[in-house]
Amino acid sequence: MDLYEYQGKQYFARFGIPISPGGVADTVDEAVARADAAGYPVVVKAQVKVGGRGKAGGIQLADDADAVRRHATAILGMDIHGHTVHRLWVENASDIAREYYASFTLDRAAKLHLCMVSAKGGVEIEEVAATDPEAISRLHVDPVDGLSLERAAGLVEAAGLDTEAREQAAALLLKLYTCYVEGDCDLAEINPLILTTDGRVHALDAKVTLDDNAAYRHPEWADYADDEELDEREKLAKEKGLNYIGLSGSVGIIANGAGLAMSTLDVVTQVGGTAANFLDIGGGANADVMAAALDVINSDGAVRAIFVNIFGGITRVDEVANGVVEALRRVDIASPIVLRLDGTNAEAGRAILAEHLSDKLIMEPTMLDAARRAVALAGGKK
Amino acid sequence: MSIFVDQNTKVVVQGLTGGQGRFHGLRNRHYGTQVVAGVTPGKGGTDVEGVPVFNTVAEAVDATGATASFVVVPPKFAADAIMEAAEGGVTFIVCITEGIPAQDEALFFNKLRRNHPKTRLLGPNCPGIISPGKCNIGITSGDIALAGGPVGIVSRSGTLTYQALHELSQQGVGQTTCVGIGGDPVPGTSFIDCLAAFEDDPETRAIMMIGEIGGSAEEQAAKFISEHMTKPVVCYVAGVTAPPGRKMGHAGAIISGSQGTAQAKMAALEAVGALVAQNPTEAGEKMVEVVKGLS
Prior knowledge:
The structure holds two protein chains of two kinds. Chain A is of the alpha+beta class. Chain A has 13 helices and 18 strands.
C-alpha cells in the first residue's frame, strides 16, 4: 500500500526522522489554522498519489493567512493527472541550502536490503540513475547484521554529501532503516532530503510503500486503508477480501493464483478478447470466496461473459464448484459463465456442476477452449 | 533420478494437526511420500491417522530420522517454524505459507544462508516439489504428474506449475521433478538453483521454466542458461497483458531498470537460445517437439 506524503511524514516522525512542522487540512479554514500553528511562510501541498504535483500547481508557497486561503481554495478540488485533491498538507517552509536523496528497499537479486544515497536529490531519481549513475551511492545491508552508524557515515561520505550535513544524515539513515525494517516498508524514500541554510538535515518529502503482508502486526495501518483511491468495483472487491484490479474489457476473469490469473488475461487477449479485470481468488479459496468473486464481476456493467479458470492445488475444486452453485442461487448473474476446472478434487467439482450446466453455465475441457468460448460469448471474436 | 528429494526423503509436517496441514500432509502420504512425523507445539504424543506428532522438530528428527520439513503454518508463525526446522537438523524445507512479511523473509533467508548453508528452503508461498512416483511435498495434486522423465519443471507461479505438469502429462511426457519456487520477493530456492540441479541430473533431458512479471529472476536465469546449460529449455512468462502491478516507487524501479516486464524477460530468454512460448499450452507443445528430438 502506498502512503500519501502526509501519512509518510507522520510515519517517519514516529521513528524520530525530522520533518517540518505542519498539519493536515481538508478545508480552507483548517489550512489557515495549520499554517498559523506551523509558522509562516508555509508551503501548501496537494495530497495525491501521483507525481508532478508541483508542475500542476499543487504545491504553493504562502507568506500569510490570505495567501494560504487563496492557494487552499485553488488546490482543494483540483484535478492532478486524474486525481482529485481532497486533502492538503500545510507545513512551515524550509530555507533550502542543498537537496539530497535517500532510500531503503529490498534488492531482490542480492536478497539483501539496499540503501541508496545521492547528493543529487530533488529531481526524479530514475533520471539521475540514467544520466549520472555514479551520482548514486549504494550500500547492501544484511538484515542479520543491520546497519551500523559507521557504514551509514561511510555511505553519506561516498555519496558526497556536504561535510556539515554528514553527521545528521548518517544518524537519519539509521532511523530510516529502523522505519523500513520495523515499520515493514517495501520502500522508504526521502526525496529531497534537505540541508537547511541554518544547518539542519530533514525530510522534505516522504514516499512510503507498506508491505500489505505485515498488516497483521500493524493495527495502526487501518487508518491508511480507508483513504485508498479505488473505483467502485475495486472497493467492493476489497470489502470481500479479493485481489482484484479493474480493467476495461468485456471478459470477466476469475482464476486462482496470480500466475494463472495473469496467464488467463494473456490467453484471452491472444484469442482476440479483452479482459474486464484481474481477479485472483488465491490459495484455499472456498465457496464463499467464489460467490463473492462472481458478485464483484457481476457488478461490472461492461462484462459480457465470465471465464472461471481454476487449477486446484490448495484450492479444492469441489469447493469452488459449490461456490458457483451458491452464487447462482444468491445472485442473478447477468453474463454466461465459462468454466475450466482441473486439479485437486476436479472430478468431484465437475460432478457438482453437471446438473447445473446450461447455455449460461458452460464447461470447457481446456484453458484455451474456455478462453475461445468466453471471448465468442462476449462478442469479441466471431 | 530427481532433484532435492527422492523415495528416501522422510518428511516431518509442521502444522500437521491444522486443517491445511492435515489435508495436504495426509495427501502427500497417500501419494507414497514417507510422511514420518508431525510437529505441533503442545500436541506431542498424539497422532494424526497414525503419523506421530511431536512438540518440536528436533524431537521429530531424533525419533524418526526425518530429513525434510513441510511447513504449513500461518504467516505469523512461519519464520520461527522455518528456523526451527533448520536448527532441528532437516536439510530441505518446503514452506507453502502465503502472506509472510517481506522483512521476515529477508531475515530468515540470510540467517539460513549464513548459519545453515547446507539447508535448502523452497518457498515460501510455493506449491512445493513433486518427483513423480517418488515423493510429493506440498499442495500439488499428485495425479496430474507423470513419472519417468525426461522433463524437469521449475516455476515461479503456483497454479501455473500445475498447468505445466498437466500440459506435459496430457501429452504423455513425464517429469523427473517439478519444483515450484514461489513468487515471493525472497524465494529460498531460485530458478538458477533448479536449473543447475537439472543440468547435473542425468535423467533430466530438458527443462520447462515458467516465469512471471516483476523482479529480475528470469533475466538472471537467462544469463545462467547462456553460460552453464547444455540441455534445452522451454520457457513461458505470464503477464504479457497484465496491468501494472503494485508500484514499488522509484527505488524499486532503479533496481530492476527496464527489467520486470514479461516482454523483457521473454526477449532475454530468447536471446540465449531458450524456446519461448506465448501460453502454457504452446509451452507444452514446444516441449513435446523437444522431447521427440532427444536421441
